[in-house]
Every structure is written in C-alpha cells, then in structure tokens.
Amino acid sequence: MTRDDTSGLELSRRRLLAGLGTAGVASAGAGLGTSAYFSDREEFTGNQLAAGELNMVVSYEEHYSDWSPDELEGISEEDVTMENPMDTTNFTGILGNDVGPLWVRNENVSTFQNNTEVVDESIPKPLTLDEEDPCASADAANDDPAASIDLDDVKPGDFGELTLDFALCDNPGYVWLSGGLESASENGLTEPEADDPDEEEGVVELLDEVQTRVWYDADCDNVFDQASEPVCADLIIDTSGSMEDAVYADGDPTITKAEAANEIARDIVTTTDDVDGADDGVLGPGPLGSTDNNRFAVNSFADEDTIEQPLTDDEQLVLDGLDAALASTPAGGTNVAEALTLAETSLSDCTVGNEKFAVLFTNAPSPDSTVRQNIRDAATDLKDVAGVTIKVVALDVDPTSTDADFWRDIASTPSDTYFVYQDGGTGTSSPGGDDDVRQEMAAAASAITAEITGGGTTTDGERLLFQGSLRELTEAIGPQPGLPLDPTDEPGRACYDANVRSCIGVGWYLPVDHANEIQTDSATFDIGFYTEQCRHNDGSGMPREENATSDS
Description:
Elements: E1 55-65, E2 80-81, E3 91-93, E4 103-105, H1 109-116, H2 138-142, E5 159-169, E6 173-185, H3 191-195, H4 205-209, E7 211-216, E8 231-238, E9 246-248, E10 255-256, H5 257-274, E11 295-301, E12 305-312, H6 315-327, H7 336-346, E13 355-362, H8 369-385, E14 388-395, H9 402-410, E15 417-420, H10 434-452, E16 464-469, H11 470-477, E17 483-485, E18 502-509, E19 522-533
Parallel strand pairs: 8-11, 8-13, 13-14, 14-15
Antiparallel strand pairs: 1-5, 2-4, 3-4, 5-18, 6-17, 6-19, 7-16, 7-18, 9-10, 11-12
Helix pairs in contact: 5-6, 5-10, 7-8
C-alpha cells in the first residue's frame, strides 16, 4: 500500500455524522385522501375509495480506510495505491479513475471492500433490501436505527464511502437527497494550526478540504464505475522486407506477416467502431469529430518512418492508412526505435487525460545488441515519460524463444505481447496450421480491442450526481426539499417506480496536501431521503415543514 508520510499532522477527534432517515406513510399533507368525491347510484353498490400509501425503506453499507495494516489482509501491498497508477486498466478507482485517493487492483476490490467495511455493533445495520422484492420487509427496515459515520482522528489521505439503498413501496414517487450541515466548529486553535498559512480565523477549513462525490450506484457495488475515457491508439506497422515472408507457409494461399498485421489491425479498428452499437464509420461513441471519441493513427516503418494517417475518429481514414502501409514497397531495414519515437509524436495531439496505446506489429528483432538497446531506450521513454501503453504483436516469433522474451520486455507488461506463430504442427502454438494461426490472429485482435474499448461494452458508466467539497455538498442538499434524484438521464424529471431497489453512493476523502489548518475542526451533517407522490405532481417539491411525509 502506497502511503504518504503524514507524521506530525495528528488531527484531534473529528466527528462526521450522517443521520440516515426514512420517509414514512404519506399523510394528508402529501395530497392523498384530501379531495376525494364519493358517489353512489342505485345500480352500483358498495363503492369505496381508500387512501393509498407512500412508504420508503432504506438500508446502507459503509466503508472507511485510514491505511491501517488490517486493510491489506489477503492483498499485496502493491495492489492498493494512493497515487493514480499508470496501468489504470488493471486498477479500479473506488471514487472513479480521475480522482484520489484510492485505487485497488481489479481482482482485489471485493476483498478490500470486505476489509474496510464499517461494522458498529451499537448501531444495528438495517435489514438488507432484497434486490427482487425490496419492500418485502418494509416494516422491519423502517424500525432500524439510522446510519452514523463517526470518525475519530481523521488524517490527510483518509477515505470513506457510504452506499444508501432505498425503495418506494406501494406507489411511485419523486425522491430527493436531503439533509444539510447541523454544526461546525474549529474547537480552538492548536499551535501548528494557528501557524499554518492556510488557517483562517473563524473558518472551519475541514468543510472545505474534505472532498465528496455522489453518484447513482446502478449496480450497488460501492464503487463509482466511471465512464471509460476515450483512448488514442497508434497502430505501428512494420513494412520491412522480412514482413513479406509467410507466417503460415503450408497453405494455398499463404499468409504473409504483412497481411496478418493488416488483418489484425483492421479487426481492431472495425470492432472499436461497433462497440457503441452503431456501425456508423465513427470510432464512437459520439458523432464524427466529437472529443468523446476514440482516435487512431497509423505509422509504418522500415528504413524510414511514415505517418500514414494522423489521429482521427474516422474509421475509413484509419483503414485506408492501414492499406497504404500494406501496399508500401518493402524496404530492408527495421528501425523499431525510431518508430516508437515517432509514436510519441503521433500521440501528442491526444486529449490530456485520455489513455494512450501504441500497438507494434513486427517480427523477430535484430540480434544486434546496440539495436536492441536503442529499442529498449525508446520503449522506456514512450512508457515512462509519455505514459503510453505498448502492446506488441510478434508475427512468426516462437513464444518460447529469447526473441519472444525481448518483445515481452518491450511491451508494458508481458501479457501485452501477442504471438502469431506456425510451429509446423508439432508444438502447442499452432499445431493445426492455418486454422490455429488465424485463431491466434483473432485472439490478439480481440484482446487488444477489449482493453482499448473497456471490455467491448458501451462506455456510459454510472452517472455522477454531485462533486465538490463537504461544505458544497451540505449546501446542495440543505435547501428544501433537497437535491433532486432521477432514475433516468432523459430530459425532464422522472418518478421512481414502486418496489424497485436503487442505490446512491456517497464518497469522501481528505487530500494529502492539506494538513495543520484542519486540526481540531469538526463538522456534523445529516444526509437522508425525502419523497413525494408522483401522481398530480410535477416534482418541484413541497416545503418539508408542510409535508408530514418528511422524516430525514
């Protein structure tokens, strides 16, 4: 676990309280049962109108990390980090991949969540809401005590998360996230706090330094599954003379290494176009030219390097660039080092923050030690300085050879190396000849595309509801009736259906670059839900003191 040194920044006792309430049975103030007209006719008997019910049930799960050793039980230290990892595809940012302070290796997220779950025996946890029938135990759930975040001795780098589950029973309704600041105090000044240049008299800096993020947790997994950022990928094609040799020589026709590279690269490009569900010629998910789109470039190299196609989101232009590389006159040299350096130039126009890939299609490396060292140096600069993930597709290279080990070293990780190799039918790589070679080509294209596009799914992610300081959050949910919640991202306000479980994630963290100015500060705030009936209502919300359904 990566830890920033916070010695000397001891914070006195803090208490951040979140009172979690429920909305009970709707009363006359909600507009139910107040304007009913009964009627009776001779031929229709037994008419009856009964007031409906609007009831909300809630549950929660809470996590807190203060970087204590017990959080690493069953996890390697390097699998949890406070700093944004270079390899974001293998790590999950609990509050999203663009903010701190916590990233966990993907396969260890569940274990880490279990290790950091807060269990307070003095506050019985509300009944877990059943996903299929959350209102089944509504009465029992409403009788449970409220949730409480009670934090002692918060320090810079600490992190917490509260997932709030709720469901409306009997009738649909509008829902708000409600609450607000109850109290805040500096509790005097310690000597280090008074001497801190960021200390302002009479201001509770804790409210401004604690950062929060609130989101619609669609899968209720306590993690903000952020939309995948668009990526930039440079397809680097070896056009040296050796690429005209066959990667599969026994068939009719044969498959040359150049043809295999072209086929794999084209597969990556066309699949990236399809990933948003629209085969529209745009490397989606947005319209042509959108800054939200993936973009590809094509470079070819032999004795000299050529940019066949600069970065673009136009699928056809990328495919044309690949075909231009395939049609180029084979040359004798293979200047891989210069090609990797050119990739940095090709990717320089990539939007800041977008992940960058360089996919190198080549064959066996030169045996010359100086040439190999030049390739290593160029790859190191591309990976460590430019932040580019390098993937290598090695054509007609035996995966068990030292040449294969060299390309594994050049790639960002050994698993970023893919081999297409005919072994004469006697080994394990391609014993079936043509069919297995093509399977290896398809497997390479599929694996690379999956990483570039986030697993081959749409990149919508979960919706962010709020982001800002703790002070800004309490100000957002404080005005009655609160911060409006919406089950869809369609225009206009929508109601939550009855008997459907929904989750809201509330995360907070104290950045490591804030210290003595927050010593002895404390804050108490409430957070809960408020709901109103959907029928005869536009969702604008009634003042809470006029509506007896409020119990936040």
